[in-house]
């Protein structure tokens, strides 16, 4: 029902940035190689995400908007995981209950695509033909138009856009093989070509994290016993006043983790200085069997099977790198 969806929306959709996060994750799940994001008025008026991924079959389109409809759970043991995944198959339903949402998609098998439109109503959405190349466009308009109490919690356009950009940054740093574009009020903010060579990676990090970070950081790339840590480590001279620049990815997924932060803090402890936090963009790759993801669907937690080994590898690698550049 609409009420149930709106309750779910209370957990999934806090602000425009949470909508963007869900739409970007769906686009990546669909195998997109190019993702274009257009937002207006901090995302409260419009968030449109267009991808060139696998698309949605005509008959699946209305289903994609109903609760617990997910195409991503296939086997019985996945079903057991629903309890912990919690929000599986709820994002689009939740978003559609608090906005005007349309979904246009083409799986690439026909020349034409199909579209469904819902406006925060219970009505079964109708499917109409619509021109669309292979892939999907999700258009969300007028967030919280039917829930004025929630609308009042929205901050200024600038603040909401900052949150959106943070979500965009976090996800664009996770997938270098995919090109991204972000525009706000018809102005292009980020244009990030796809490609996983070093020059494109450096350009993307510089674009997203600022050229000051790129200039005042050192590249790291160390492999040991099946673990690889690579990325950029901010030098002690680099400081960022507003917010921490700390991105840590495990197998391409941004995480916050006690083992990781402890190792980083320890490695930096010799050079830590008042009020400043180390800046870094780091990628840890390891055998997926050695890490449980999805401990929590929104908090981006992981659990390492070999915590000690991961901790010591991170600590030693970072400490050595930092010791090299310590003034
Ligand atoms: P979940 O991602 O947890 O499955 P969502 O509510 O986010 O749930 O999406 C519901 C379903 O809609 C997905 O399982 C998928 O089948 C389909 N879907 C949503 N967005 C896209 C997209 N950009 N491309 C292809 N399929 C999509
Ligand atoms: Mg999803």
Summarize the structure.
The protein is built from eleven helices and 15 strands. With 327 residues, the chain is an alpha+beta fold. β3 and β4 form a beta hairpin.
Could you say which overall geometry the principal axes of the C-alpha atoms support? elongated
- Report the major sheet: 8 strands, mixed
CATH C-level class of the largest domain is Alpha Beta
Rounded mean pLDDT is 86
Tally of individual helices:
11
Strand content of the residues, in percent?
A: 25-35%
User: Helix and strand succession?
Assistant: HHEEHHHEEEEHHEEHHEEEEHEEEH
Domain count: 2
CATH architecture of the largest domain: 2-Layer Sandwich
Question: Termini, distance in Å?
Answer: 62 Å
Structural class: alpha+beta
Protein name: DNA mismatch repair protein MutL
Keywords: DNA damage, DNA repair, Endonuclease, Hydrolase, Nuclease
GO biological process, one term: mismatch repair
GO molecular function: ATP binding; ATP hydrolysis activity; ATP-dependent DNA damage sensor activity; endonuclease activity; mismatched DNA binding
Structure in words:
- The chain is of the alpha+beta class and about 325 residues long.
- It has 2 domains: about 1-190, Heat Shock Protein 90, CATH 3.30.565.10; about 210-325, Ribosomal Protein S5, domain 2 (2-Layer Sandwich), CATH 3.30.230.10.
- It is built from 11 helices and 15 strands.
- The strands form 3 sheets. The chain has an 8-stranded mixed β-sheet, covered by helices on one side. Strands 9-10-13-11-12 form a 5-stranded mixed β-sheet.
- Strand 7 and strand 8 (about 185-190) form a beta hairpin.
- Helix 1 (about 1-10) crosses helix 5, helix 2 packs parallel to helix 7 (about 155-170) and helix 10 packs parallel to helix 11 (about 305-325).
- The chain is elongated, with a radius of gyration of 21 Å.
- The model is unreliable at about 75-85 (pLDDT under 50).
- The structure holds adenosine-5'-diphosphate and magnesium ion.
